[in-house]
UniProtKB/TrEMBL annotation:
Keyword list, A-Z: Metal-binding, Ribonucleoprotein, Ribosomal protein, Zinc, Zinc-finger
UniProt protein name: 50S ribosomal protein L24e
Family indicated by similarity: Belongs to the eukaryotic ribosomal protein eL24 family.
Entry-linked CDD domains: Ribosomal_L24e_L24 (cd00472)
GO molecular function: structural constituent of ribosome; zinc ion binding
Source organism (scientific name): Candidatus Acidifodinimicrobium mancum
A Pfam family recorded for this sequence: Ribosomal_L24e
Length: 56
């Protein structure tokens, strides 16, 4: 299973979505909140609910 590119949680099969950039880079997201925060260039380390902030 893939992990969310923003929050680090597992994306269960059949849920979430993937975002493919023009250069071929693939990003997986488990919910729209993660995707919108990614598009707004938010840093996942600043949010307590992400794995990146828990690893600091």
């Amino acid at each position: 299973m893939a992990k969310c590119s923003f929050c680090g949680r597992e994306v269960k099969q059949g849920t979430g979505f993937m975002y493919v950039k023009v250069d071929g880079t693939v990003y997986y997201f488990d919910k729209r909140k993660c995707f919108s925060y990614y598009l707004m260039n938010r840093d996942p380390r600043n949010f307590k609910w992400t794995e990146a902030s828990k690893n600091q």
